[in-house]
Amino acid sequence: NSSNKLEFLSSNVSKDNREYTNTGNKPLTVRLEDGSLVTLQPQAVLKCPAHFSKSLREVSLEGEGFFEISKNPLKPFLVYNKNVITRVVGTSFIVKTSQGNNQTEVIVRTGKVVVSPNTGRFNIKELLKSEKGVVLTPNQKTVYNATENTFETSLVDRPEPIELKNNKATIKENYLFNDTPVASVLGQLQRSYGIEFVVNDEQLYNYTFTGDLSEQNLYSQLDFLCE
Question: Do 48 and 18 touch, CB atoms closer than 8 A?
Fold first, then answer.
């Protein structure tokens, strides 16, 4: 492409496109051909081909949408936005653009995504390389500023536990600890949220923790642990 317009790279899917616009005041959920779900916030616009290509799944988004992508490692999923391109294999995430269109925020719920600037000049093979762009994992977000061409990556404001699956059933973590080594407590929190914690004073690993952190958010859990 010679510009960063919301166009699809695969030439064989650009002839028959579909467009979904949320004209209401409530979220609108759209099911795509591959089973992926996209929840559009009011005024959001989703464009996609009637049929995905054999090697690539491509959609474009204006506004805010929450994506729950069906896993298919052989068929990457690309979300085009005026400012960025978000690439996934199987995950759930949010893409939203500011009203001024100069900032785009990508928030990851599960899985991993790679966010690259939509410069309008890119090669599809380079775009699909894992090292190209900002890599986000669960409970991370990045904000791209198109004016300054910069990414600012951080944790989300309110990290949520990653749901554990066992035989299609959701398992909730048990945060009740009784004389448990601090290393074990931190290890469970890391697994639950997909976030790495760095302990500067390794002597803390010699301590134990007793308490119930079940009804607390991550930052409250850490506060109790530090106390």
Answer: yes
Instruction: Give the DSSP H/E element, type plus range, for residue 96.
Output: strand 92-97
User: Alpha-carbon distance 2 to 151, whole Å?
Assistant: 23
Planar angle of CA 77, 78, 83, nearest 5 degrees: 160
**Would the pLDDT of 181 be above 80?**
yes
Q: What is the pLDDT of residues 191-218, one digit of tens each?
A: 889 888 888 888 888 899 999 998 889 9
Give the chain's count of helices (H) and strands (E): 3, 18
Separation between Cα atoms, residue 223 and residue 227, nearest integer Å: 6
Give the whole-angstrom CA distance, residue 88 versus residue 92: 9
Cα–Cα distance measured from residue 34 to residue 21, given in angstroms and rounded to the nearest whole number = 20
Phi and psi of 185, rounded to 5°? -65, -50
What does pTM read for this prediction? 0.77
User: Could you write out the DSSP letters of every residue in 98-152?
Assistant: -TTSSEEEEEEEES-EEEEE--S---HHHHTSTTSSEEE-TTEEEEEETTTTEEE
Check residue 98 and give its pLDDT: 80
How far is it, in rounded angstroms, from Cα 67 to Cα 89? 12
Residues near 190 by beta carbon (within 8 Å), at least 6 away in sequence: 196, 197
Q: How many CB atoms lie within 10 A of CB 178?
A: 9
Q: State residue 23's pLDDT score.
A: 94
List, in order, residues 6 or more apart from 76 with CB less than 8 Å away. Answer: 56, 57, 87, 88, 89, 128
